[in-house]
Design a protein that fits this description.
extended; single chain; 14 helices; mainly alpha
């Protein structure tokens, strides 16, 4: 059961309305890394959690994220206070009202639908979606995802802080940003309180592949470091000599029963290409300058090849 306390977790002091800033703030209201996404992620994880300690932590943090949604939503509402009143009362001249709405960065549809109130959209007007909640009901997976989510949200708050000079907003955003840090610490502790938390899940990795580093991007810029070199790694640089890594032939095969095999053989025969043919195609028939080499035919054939200067001269205006 939830009970709402009418006092915010952190006092919101907005110096003056700023609809454009309000639009940017919506990223943390209804965006992918925003407070609603965080609250729903941790709330659903907490409901499905069997461990009493993690369950308590997740529901605590989920509920606090709802209070953060309230803080950021209040900031948006205060920043939109002027435009909301103008939209509602229509006291402003038409041209000024158009100018004001256009300056918010929201679409006309958003302004008309939401009227300056905090809407569950991101800064580009994209509606909030449950697809932002990426839980997998495996604590060693979800806790890592939560750590990353808090880190992403922290960076978004940093950027929002950097685009405003309003001291009250900076203070409130600084508080919200710092709570992301605290939550990340809690999730880190919960993760490392699980014995054998890596690799995630129950099944172990295949030992002979678990320490292999495959250098598949080669050339200038190749760099070595603890992520790909040293005693922890068996590094593969010569892919031609070592692939397929399982020692097989590297081909894809499937066992078919006689009926499927017969049908597959018929299909392969029907769709077989003739490598000896060179048919005239639509590209040949419609070939013009720049088409490259084409097959010769009654109505086609390769156009005369012109040099770039000649082509430029031919196409230059008289």
């Amino acid at each position: 059961m939830f009970m709402h306390n009418k006092r915010l977790q952190y006092t919101v002091r907005v110096a003056e309305p700023n609809p454009r800033l309000a639009t940017m703030m919506l990223e943390q209201f209804g965006g992918a890394d925003g407070e609603l996404a965080a609250a729903m992620r941790y709330f659903t994880q907490g409901l499905g959690e069997d461990d009493p300690g993690r369950k308590d932590m997740l529901l605590d943090i989920a509920t606090e994220e709802l209070s953060h949604l309230e803080v950021i939503g209040s900031i948006v509402a205060m920043l939109n206070k002027g435009v909301k009143a103008q939209l509602a009362e229509g006291q402003m001249e038409e041209v000024e009202l158009y100018r004001t709405i256009g300056a918010t960065g929201t679409s006309a549809k958003e302004s008309l639908l939401f009227g300056g109130g905090p809407a569950l959209i991101d800064s580009a007007g994209v509606p909030w979606t449950a697809a932002y909640v990426d839980s997998r009901s495996e604590p060693t997976v979800d806790l890592r995802s939560n750590i990353a989510a808090e880190a992403r949200a922290k960076i978004v708050y940093e950027r929002l802080i950097n685009i405003t000079d309003d001291p009250g907003i900076k203070e409130a955003l600084g508080f919200l940003m710092t709570r992301e840090v605290a939550h990340q610490k809690s999730f880190e502790k919960a993760l490392y309180s699980i014995e054998d938390n890596f690799p995630p899940g129950k099944l172990p990795g295949v030992e002979k592949y678990a320490s292999v580093y495959v250098n598949t991007s080669q050339g200038d810029g190749d760099t070595t470091g603890p992520w790909n070199s040293g005693e922890q790694w068996d590094r593969i640089d010569d892919l031609a000599q070592t692939m397929p890594i399982d020692g097989g032939d590297g081909l894809a095969t499937v066992g078919l029963d006689s009926a499927d095999q017969a049908v597959a053989t018929k299909m392969a025969k029907r769709t077989m290409s003739d490598p000896t043919s060179d048919p005239v195609t639509g590209a040949d028939l419609g070939a013009g300058p720049g088409a490259g080499r084409t097959s010769s035919g009654d109505k086609g054939g390769a156009p005369d090849i012109q040099s770039a200067p000649a082509m430029a001269e031919a196409t230059a205006p008289a």
